[in-house]
Amino acid sequence: MAVNDTQIQDIVRKVLAQLQTEPQISGKPLMGVFEDMNDAIRASKKAQKEIRALSMDSRERIISNIRKKTIEHAETMARMGVEETQMGNVGDKILKHKLVAEKTPGTEDIVTTAWSGDRGLTLIEMGPFGVIGAITPSTNPSETVICNSIGMIAGGNSVVFSPHPGAAKVSNFAVDLVNRASVEAGGPNNLAVSVVKPTMETSNIMIKHKDIPLIVATGGPGVVTTVLSSGKRGIGAGAGNPPVLVDETADIKKAAQDIINGCTFDNNLPCIAEKEIVAVEKIVDELTYYLIENGGFVISREDQNRLIATVFKDGKLNRNCVGRDARTLLSMIGIDAPANTRCIIFEGEKENPLIAEELMMPILGIVRAKDIDDAIEKAVWLEHGNRHSAHMHSKNVDNLTKFGQAIDTAIFVKNAPSYAALGFGGEGFCTFTIASRTGEGLTSARTFTKQRRCVMSDSFCIR
Question: In CATH terms, is domain 243-427 a member of 3.40.309.10?
Fold first, then answer.
């Protein structure tokens, strides 16, 4: 019998109600979810010894089952995430879970380098760090848990998660999924662990714990700074404010469609999404026309001021606005927008807070530039040196090259929506931990390993 949307919502509400009282789903305790962080770390350390002893084939069987279960439960996690965080939309979150399941690298990313010659054989092997601590965000909560788990397990690690408190329920659902997949495939329990109620205190215990040599932080600049100040090896996936530059050689109609699609994907929650437009002035009017054709809604200067007052509270982003759709945001300032509205657009100076600040909302300010050089200068300023992501629409290879060199970001998407960077409509693997600040870029299984050189002198060369 088919299950309708109302029944699915009822099921999700029951799951969330259970999680609010104790760590269990459908009457079963959540696997890998502990009351105490120290207990979680002890269990993770034991599991890591077991996963390290398993063959690569065994690890891959575990990962294959994680992929399978992620696809099976993609809709459940999407609905849980939206209901718990009040951010994003179910349809796009389903796509993100499927993308993570299908395109996150597994054990194929763990490779050996060898040199063989007259003086023997030397190998470079990629070995585990051990127990990795991972801080995950509320914007892509379960997606990041699944993505990190696949890569870290492939490298022979276990992982202790400290989820964002505002997304603990769906994050812990994903932790449970990872462990059930492992046990079903003959692997250990507690490969991924977490706590029922994550707090600053539980995060600090994790960060400072002697048995955790590597911390991976996916989140805002504050949490990344904390991790990088811990005295341990840290991988920091922090803030971005990705500009999209459009020059006069671009296919303007396609550029507008791509920009709206990228900006509105999951209500602009992905850190790589287009956050503002810098356009050469001779094509601004044409670009605006096509942005409107694709669901852009133009607001006046007065509306901008009301939006600024709504989006920012006491100098900080209003969390109630983050990840909301354009019509909801407009309703907050008294505008009843048409049903086809997808994105709020306006023209302004680069210093406008709706342009200069990373909002994670489908709001696109358009900054005019005199020429390509002026456009590049403005776009580089708007990216604020985060070295995270940038995008450009152009058919001029020289302009593309010039901007790419100037912006120097971990991701540079050309003539496509921003999500092409994650393998969605573009080539390459998927990740939701983009370590621009510490230089690893798009992380994968090999990121979570350390190199070991094994040398056998004057032997094993049989040429």
Answer: yes
